[in-house]
Write a structure and sequence with these properties.
Belongs to the metallo-dependent hydrolases superfamily. Hydantoinase/dihydropyrimidinase family. The structure is a single chain. By secondary structure, the chain is an alpha/beta fold. About 30% of the residues lie in helices and about 20% in strands. Helix 2 links the parallel strand 11 and strand 12. Helix 3 packs parallel to helix 4 and helix 4 crosses helix 7. The longest helix has 17 residues. It binds N-(aminocarbonyl)-beta-alanine and zinc ion (ZN) (3 copies). The site of one zinc ion has 4 residues, from loops. The site of one zinc ion (ZN) has 3 residues, from loops.
């Protein structure tokens, strides 16, 4: 059964033009004028765009004594409802656990996925076993490795471990990712705040100022440079971190930055209204910041110094959040957003003139597919690409509300936000999953997308040169050892 999307305007990362799209066997078979198929979908007044790819989700992830509430079924259903047709989730080995066992766990969780998906691997500990297994992980089609510079005492890796892992990534043609916050300083500030009696959720924000993120981002970039590796910085939330990325890119280093839709739109006042539940539901790392930081992130998307927009979807119920009632450091860190990323970014970005439609497609889909090495299978409206397609109606609107969302949690951080720009139809590998408010997500439809190592260029482009043997330097005739 072929399908044809008719009378729409195709919007890709680089072009806007009128054409029909014919879908056969889950892929885009033809793009052209006056096409016909067994089934026809009317896109009059709509934009036909590559489905969103969320490069950063945590579905059913064990974290801070509990599991994130959305699993691959509810998570990918929420994704589809908002026009996202692929998620990239993090395999998270327990410290000491085999990376290959972690993949098995994620294989089991993801059988329920209604969208295609792929994995990043987290490097939560270091040793010969991890070093060796990283090659097998790459062979399994996972070529991105995440490092937590925060969460001291659990997931955090030290600089020497990160340096070793980055070098290994460079050798394997893999791309390292970092959660950049100075975990030692966060831990020290948290203890200081608790000792002074500040145990509420607003103290979470005080414990993680922009400086801890800026310092860690800069450190990770310098370490990646010395390891001759490119770098991808997840959830960039502040000017200090953006500045470090901008500076590195200006020098020619291959550093990518990923702001979240939450940080672009929600600010630190969310923690300050005295309502414990409201604030705790918004506890995530890094925390929401002020308008100056938000403006910096928007500017980065406009200028290209930041390349993608993610959600870091890691949803916890109010009850789960209340684990930290007497101690903010025990509030599970994370917020939702999978269903809302595209409509909110369209409303606050495209409709306000901050982003063009083509830039919208680039940062929600195409750039992600390119950076993660799955373009043009994903992230493209091209003949031969997977038919992950949204028919986007720029006139449909709604008010975001937990009452009508697909996520299983009992609130939404965007509650009350009005959005204009929503999907009319969503196709996942050619199958219709969304028709306006009707959700027909099929658990099990999703397939794992294997990604090849980065063959051509996987370097940091550094001018830094490793000195492997100490040299003797003559100074005024006196031999000086070392340099
Ligand atoms: O607070 C957050 N971001 N939770 C999810 C895990 C992570 O750090 O990405
Ligand atoms: Zn993180
Ligand atoms: Zn995350
Ligand atoms: Zn199917």
């Amino acid at each position: 059964m072929s399908k044809v999307i008719k009378n729409g305007t195709i919007v890709t990362a680089d072009r806007t033009y009128k054409a029909d799209v014919l879908i056969e066997g889950g892929v885009i078979a033809r793009i052209g004028q006056n096409l016909s198929g067994d089934e026809s979908f009317d896109a009059t007044g709509c934009y036909v765009m590559p489905g969103g790819i969320d490069p950063h989700t945590h579905l059913e992830m064990p974290f801070m004594g509990t599991y994130s509430a959305d699993d691959f079924e509810s998570g990918t259903r929420a994704a589809l409802a908002g026009g996202t047709t692929m998620v990239v989730d993090f395999c998270l080995p327990n410290p000491g656990q085999s990376l290959l066992d972690a993949i098995k766990m994620w294989d089991n969780k993801s059988v329920k996925a209604a969208t295609d998906y792929t994995f990043h691997m987290a490097v939560t500990w270091w040793g010969e076993q991890v070093f060796n297994e990283m090659a097998e992980v790459v062979d399994r089609g996972i070529n991105t490795f995440k490092h937590f510079m925060a969460y001291k005492g659990s997931l955090m890796v030290d600089d020497d471990e990160m340096f070793s892992s980055f070098q290994r990534c460079s050798d394997l043609g893999a791309l390292p990712l970092v959660h950049a916050e100075n975990g030692d300083v966060v831990a020290a500030l948290s203890q200081k705040l608790l000792a002074a009696g500040n145990n509420g959720p607003e103290a979470h924000a005080y414990s993680r100022p922009a400086e801890v993120e800026g310092e860690a981002t800069n450190r990770a970039i310098m370490i990646a440079d010395m390891a001759n590796s490119p770098l991808y910085v997840v959830h960039v939330s502040c000017e200090q971190s953006h500045e470090a990325i901008r500076r590195a890119r200006q020098k020619g280093m291959r550093v990518f930055g990923e702001p979240l839709i939450q940080h672009l739109v929600l600010d630190e006042t969310e923690y300050m209204n005295g309502d414990w539940d409201h604030a705790a539901r918004r506890v995530m790392s890094p925390p929401f910041r002020n308008k100056q930081h938000q403006d910096s992130l928007w500017a980065g998307l406009q200028a290209g110094s930041l390349q993608v927009v993610a959600t870091d979807h890691c949803a916890f119920t109010t009850e789960q959040k209340r684990t930290g009632l007497n101690d903010f450091t025990k509030i599970p860190n994370g917020t939702g957003g999978l269903e809302d990323r595209l409509p909110v970014l369209w409303t606050r970005g495209v409709a306000t003139g901050r982003l063009t439609m083509n830039e919208f497609v680039a940062v929600t889909s195409t750039n992600i597919a390119k950076i993660l090495n799955m373009y043009p299978k994903k992230g493209a409206i091209l003949e031969g690409s997977d038919a992950d397609i949204i028919v986007w109606d720029p006139k449909r609107s709604k008010t975001i509300s937990a009452g009508s969302q697909q996520s299983v949690i009992d609130y939404n951080v965007f509650e009350g936000v009005e959005v204009t720009g929503l999907p009319r139809f969503v196709f996942t590998r050619g199958e219709l999953a969304i028709t306006e408010d009707t959700v027909d997500a099929k658990p099990g439809h999703g397939e794992f997308v294997a990604r090849q190592p980065f063959a051509a260029v996987n370097r940091a482009l550094s001018t830094w040169k490793e000195i492997t043997a100490p040299r003797k330097v003559e100074r005024a005739g006196i031999p000086v050892s070392g340099v």
